[in-house]
Specification:
heterodimer, A: mainly alpha, 9 helices, about 70% helix, B: mainly alpha, Helix Hairpins, elongated
Amino acid sequence: MSRPPLALLIPAVLLALGVLALFLFTFFPGGEPVSPYLARDAAGETGAANLVAGVYLNYRLYDTLFEVLVFAVAVIGVRYYLVGQKEGAAPPIPESPVVRTAADLLFSPLLLIGVYLVLFGHLSPGGGFAGGVVGGSGLLLCAIGLGGEVIARRFHETALERAEWLILAGFLLLLLVPVLFGAAPGTNLLPQGTVGNPVSGGTIVIYNILIGAKVFIGTWVVIYYFTRHRGEV
Amino acid sequence: MGIVIAVVLLGIAILGLVLRRDLIFKLLSLGVLNSGAVLFLVSLGDRAGGTAPIVRGPGPAAYVDPLPQALVLSAIVIDFAVLAVALVFAMLLVERYHTTDSVRIEEEVTKELYR
């Protein structure tokens, strides 16, 4: 097989990207741009001090719904394709006391930071996805320090799966509840409170908690299956 | 500046995707490609002297555009999902053909098909 001519490829790629960038810079349709509108009105309309959280959990909630669905499908894919595979030898637990002590010391703070990021995602940088991943990386640290099986024994596999489906169902139900009151699906009907208060933003906090739990469980499932099925090449 | 770095990252990633033969390197390039796209979109929403789009007090402030940041969140999560599933497929291929070289895997598959 002949290698593609390198000298031609680089300029072609850069040229294509340059044309794309130029197109994006020059093409602005008329009317008020979204950015000033969001900066002026978004906090008042959504009740979330974090404008990004206000956008992806209020204005563009469907985006987030399908994002969560894509995440769920990926977790299902990892589980489906690896569950029938032969397992590698049990991962050796490192004897290094440094890793074990670090895992013991850091696990609780990481979990705490994850919960904080989830609960205050509408006020400060953070949110469900970031918080869930932080908690999941705490579990990864424990899996490295103590071995994945030790932690897996504490989680009931079927219970985890059930929790995942319950969270998804809760997300969809919460999305559909406004229909009962004659509003469009996903409308934020809870009182929005004062911008900047911990209790503000209406349903944004609930969505953040659901997403955080979903991402936490999903991250753990991916980590667990990857550590259990690493084989020898 | 961010856009320049993003375009360079995208170029490196596309070259890696096309030219590297190792499956794992291809997946790493996919990750870099996603980072380049993320950086590009976030840089588009940037403005001179803008602050993070978090309301700290009453009155208007020079926030950067929060919309691309919210959109990019989807890209990050979907990149994670794609990488996880792609790594699983790479694991299955390695299990079967005992190599991560995409060209050799292709040869083996062709051999199996036309035997």
